[in-house]
Design goal:
By secondary structure, this protein is of the alpha+beta class. It contains 14 helices and 14 strands. The chain has three domains: 98 residues, Rossmann fold, CATH 3.40.50; 62 residues, Dna Ligase, domain 1 (2-Layer Sandwich); 143 residues, D-amino Acid Aminotransferase, Chain A, domain 1. Helix content is 37%, strand content 22%. It is globular, with a radius of gyration of 21 Å.
Length: 375
């Protein structure tokens, strides 16, 4: 009989906590415990959470609270899910490892480098890995000279962050100059990147010391109605060349941990380019799990030192229920758009664990109403 594994998610306020909990709930031997600061965090209301706790105060208080939770609930694995949660755990790794097992984690310097589009671009150039022309925004003459080599239109992206947010498409040099002139104090928080129209490609990985332990590769098939947002419908594919490129990057980074590597396949040439590395869990975790790779579960096994063979993922299409229904109702499907099946597991978890979905929907509508009221 498989031994029960008690897993604590310490950053339950993150939107990635929900998908992680759902993936862990697929494993009957896992008991999920949650810690958060927001009493209305949707994940707190999941029926899959055995216990729910608060982690508050300064670092010393949080570490004391963590030690109490670990001791009382006999926690086996601490599994941070967000960038903020991972950073806190990495910063206090020495103290936390005395309390509980941790999944593979990178050094803080590597974590910060991979998650910064400007620093990552410099490494990609050094290692000869493909990327769009990328220029970090600075105030010196080299920035001005580099811009002359960039064809417009371009994308301006925040150096940190993902999910397609804080990305701006600018058609001309004049538009770029105007954009930067309006942000004199924060211009160095952006990069300017060549625009390559094409297909979104994502590679989910779990690695230790630069060696990939698990991987799943998919392409976007149905676009997000929010420009630059992650695709809502995906299809898992076999692409040895792209997977090999990602494995080279993971090896060069000497990466430990989980990550979502975003790429673009140029629509004209078919060339694949690296865009960014999301140094955390990702919103499409349930798609990876449905394809046969349960990354949160594998991260727990790695934390406990248990060996496993690299899983083979199935070549399936995945379309979450609510985005799929909204997509169909609003008529965003064109004649050439692929017809992906609605994800049955997504529907099943909505029916069997409805409170997080309901609370998230209420919060979203409340926030939208508040914005309208303030405006």
């Amino acid at each position: 009989m498989t031994r029960e594994i008690a897993v604590l998610v310490p950053d339950g306020d993150s939107p990635f906590a929900g998908p992680v909990i759902q993936c862990l709930a697929r494993r009957p031997e896992i008991r999920v415990h949650l810690a958060s600061q927001d009493r209305w965090s949707p994940a707190r209301f999941s029926r899959h959470c055995t216990t729910v706790h608060r982690l508050e105060g300064d670092d010393s208080s949080r570490l004391e609270s963590l030690a109490t939770i670990v001791r009382r609930q006999a926690i086996d694995v601490l599994l941070p899910v967000s960038e903020e949660g991972l950073r806190w755990v990495i910063e206090h790794r020495a103290s936390i490892e005395e309390l509980v097992s941790l999944p593979p984690l990178p050094p803080l310097e590597s974590f910060d480098e991979a998650g910064d589009k400007g620093r990552l671009s410099k490494r990609l150039h050094q290692w000869g890995l493909p990327q769009p022309r990328t220029v970090p925004c600075t105030r010196n003459e080299s920035f001005e000279r580099s811009l002359t080599e960039l064809p417009f239109p371009v994308l301006v992206k925040a150096r940190r962050g993902g999910g397609g947010r804080h990305i701006f498409a600018l058609e001309s040099r004049a538009a770029l100059d105007h954009f930067l002139s309006e942000r004199p104090d924060i211009r160095e928080q952006y990069v300017v990147q060549q625009l390559h129209p094409g297909t979104d490609v994502s590679c989910n990985v779990l690695a230790r010391n630069g060696k990939v332990l698990a991987v799943a590769l998919y392409e976007g098939r149905i676009s997000n109605p929010r420009r630059f947002g992650p695709p809502i419908g995906v299809e898992f594919i076999e692409d040895d060349a792209t997977r090999s490129l990602v494995e080279r990057l993971i090896e060069r980074l000497d990466w430990s941990g989980y990550a979502d590597v975003d790429l673009i396949r140029d629509g004209r040439t078919g060339q694949v380019y690296f865009l960014e590395v999301n140094t955390r869990f990702w919103s499409s975790l349930l798609a990876s799990e449905a394809a046969g790779v349960n990354f949160p579960h594998l991260a727990c096994l790695a934390a406990l030192g248990q060996r496993f063979e690299r899983p083979r993922y199935r070549h399936i299409g995945y379309l979450p229920v609510l985005p799929g229904i909204r997509h169909a109702i609003r008529g965003w499907w064109g004649e050439a758009s692929p017809r992906l099946p609605l994800a049955r597991r997504d529907l099943q978890q909505m029916i069997t664990d409805p409170l997080p979905v309901a609370i998230r929907s209420i919060q979203k509508r409340w926030n939208q109403r508040s914005k309208v009221t303030r405006s």
